[in-house]
Amino acid sequence: LEVSDSTIGGWFQSTATLLAPLGEALKKEVLAQDYVQVDESPIPVQGDHNEEGIRTGYHWVYHAPLIKAVLFNYAPGRSAQFPTEALKDFRGALQSDGYSGYDKLMQREGITALACMAHARRKFDHALQSDRPRAEHALKAFGDLYAIERTCDQEEVPPEERHARRNRDALPILDELEMWLNQEIIVVAPKSPIGQAIAYTLGLWPRLRAYTTDGRYLIDNNRIENTIRPMAIGRKNYLFAGSDRGARHAALMYSLLGTCKLHGAEPFAYLSDVIARISDHKANRLHELLPQNWMPLAK
Predict the structure, then answer these.
(1) End-to-end CA, the chain
(2) Nearest to 20 by CA among 249, 219, 260
């Protein structure tokens, strides 16, 4: 049986329309958390009135580690106005990479700014070929910091214990690394890879070490990057979204299926159950159908 692309597209649009209230419920739950990671990833979008023209839209991704939920929120650009609007009522810890579009948001009252240690580490990894001694010195410090986190993960220590271990073991490493960075920044070429790595790290230093203030905070943004990775694979398959509406629908499905993955829920079983139930489900209890709360009906 051959089914036309337009028919399948219609099914997808109808399904996304049906599940849209669930997407809003997920958005409300994610952004109500007091610890959120944010990142963005481009998606090519076909112009609505120009079949030949492809422009770049963005999925702004918000990950709530404490409830294992992820929200993809489509916007037609990369302007700082989009995360600022989405997070206008947010209060708590916000973790991002060094993109300047988050700067004003990070400075807002009520927000604790966290940065991503993995991004800083990568800068020194890229500088290995041009200045191995300095790059290896920094990478050794990063390795020691990550070793503390791995030990805590393996032993499944509670946040309070992780906080205590960071104060005891990580802060001295961070203090030594900060002193070394300040010494080296004045002797390396500013535009060299090692100079750029040091400048990047010092520019974000208060945010980079802020993860030590609370045992619930993560050292980096790797988990949110893992939720974005399947989208990069998808782009190679479908190439672009046919419209802004199509990109929004894709964001909805990425949100629901990404959260399913974080909770080990089988996506086909989840969608089959929720699509069948959502029309009769009470609007004030939609949160029960979110992947992190979902329980299939007993047969």
Answers:
(1) 31
(2) 249
How far is it, in rounded angstroms, from Cα 214 to Cα 93? 10
Q: Hey, what are 74's tokens?
A: 């489509």
Burial of 134 (0-12, 13-18, 19+ CB in 10 A): buried
- In this prediction the pTM is 0.92
Task: Report how far residue 181's alpha carbon sits from residue 197's, in angstroms, rounded to the nearest whole number.
Answer: 10
CA dist., res. 97 & res. 112, Å (int): 14
Q: What is the DSSP string of 185-228?
A: TTTS-TTSHHHHHHHHHHHTHHHHHGGGG-TTS-SSSHHHHHHH
Summarize the chain as % helix, strand, coil (round to 5).
60, 15, 25
* Sign, Cα dihedral of 22, 28, 32, 36: positive
Helical axes 132-155 vs 171-184, angle rounded to 10°: 160
Q: pLDDT band at 299, cuts 50/70/90?
A: low
Distance CA 177, CA 31 (A): 34
What tens digit of pLDDT does each residue of 28-47 get?
999 999 999 999 999 999 87
- Give the dihedral sign, CA 271/274/278/283: negative
Residues 6+ apart with CB under 8 A from 88: none
